[in-house]
Design a protein that fits this description.
Layout (H helix, E strand, L loop, with lengths): L21 E3 L2 E3 L21 E4 L9 E4 L4 E2 L4 E2 L6 E10 L7 E8 L8 H4 L7 E2 L10 E4 L12 E5 L15 E9 L4 E5 L12 E6 L5 E8 L6 E7 L21 E8 L8 E11 L1
Length: 288
């Protein structure tokens, strides 16, 4: 089922009205959760570093933000129940002629540990349980494990999760328990994994592990790799209740397993030219 599109009656809801509850096709949109989503403070208040302030040229004729390749997150985190809560998101964007950097926008899913949940933390490849073949020392980029029942050595973007539960109900794992695998060397009785970076803890031989796969760092429900037009365009989308299955990686319009809160995120990546991608009218609202 595609994400719902909830569009308020007006084409653009100015910030002075964004604290109002407004009707949409699928119910009511609550107040905008974002601080300074429309640039009403006249600066970058409410956002992490990455935005610069443009004094003019906004979507409604006033000012706007400019964004580059530095990831921008809302400073506030918004609690929610992923099994019952729907979210509406909106963003206006445009680019200058010398810019072709793709835009990414959506939310970062946050766990009960306060960590941003990466895909490799919230799902597990089925039948890939294994154990440490020998003791693992914190910081080492080499790990030896027994071969899993499901041979996933040929898959791309592999990750290893350490010190897990046998019932797979521990997801998402903490970031300290997970690391990306850059290569696998298979022996008869064990695999040798090369890790992109060492884990922060040591584990003894026999510790239960399993494999997962990496993916998009964030939930890009408002756009993933899109090239903004030369004139302002508004994008709206929703995230519906539900989380990814334990054995399936999350998709772009889905909360990640273990989500207890979200933060708004946007940035550009790749492409060429200046960083003059313009952003305005960012909204994150609950649907009632």
């Amino acid at each position: 089922m595609p994400p719902l599109r909830c569009e308020p009656a007006g084409l653009w809801l100015p910030q002075r009205a964004s604290d109002l509850v407004v009707p949409c096709e699928h119910g009511l949109l609550g107040p905008n959760l974002l601080t300074n989503g429309h640039g009403e403070y006249g600066d970058t208040t409410g956002w992490t570093t990455g935005f610069t302030w443009a004094g003019s040229g906004g979507a409604n004729g006033d000012a706007c933000f400019r964004v580059g390749t530095t990831i921008v997150l809302s400073q506030k985190t918004f609690p929610l129940n992923p099994l019952t809560d729907s979210l509406y998101g909106a963003i206006w964007d445009r680019r200058d002629e010398d810019t072709s950097r793709p835009l990414y926008a959506g939310v970062a899913c946050v766990s009960a540990y306060g960590e941003i949940i990466r895909p490799a933390m919230c799902h597990r490849l089925q039948n890939t349980h294994c154990t440490l073949f020998e003791n693992y020392t914190a910081g080492s980029t080499t790990m030896k494990v027994t071969p899993p029942a499901n041979d996933v050595s040929g898959l791309s973007a592999l990750a290893i999760q350490a010190n897990i539960s046998s019932d797979d109900l521990d997801l998402p794992v903490m970031a300290a328990q997970m690391q990306y695998v850059t290569s696998v060397t298979k022996n008869v009785d064990h695999w040798v994994l090369t890790l992109s970076s060492g884990l922060s803890q040591s584990y003894s031989a026999g510790t239960l592990c399993a494999f997962s796969q990496s993916g998009d760092s964030y939930t890009y429900f408002l756009g993933s790799g899109i090239t903004p037009p030369l004139t302002w365009e508004k994008r709206v989308a929703t995230i519906l209740p539900g989380v990814n299955d334990r054995y399936t990686a999350p998709v772009s319009n889905q909360y990640r397993r273990g989500t207890v809160a979200v933060r708004f995120v946007c940035f550009t990546s790749g492409g060429s030219g200046s960083y003059n991608t313009h952003i305005d009218g960012m909204e994150l609202r609950r649907i009632y």
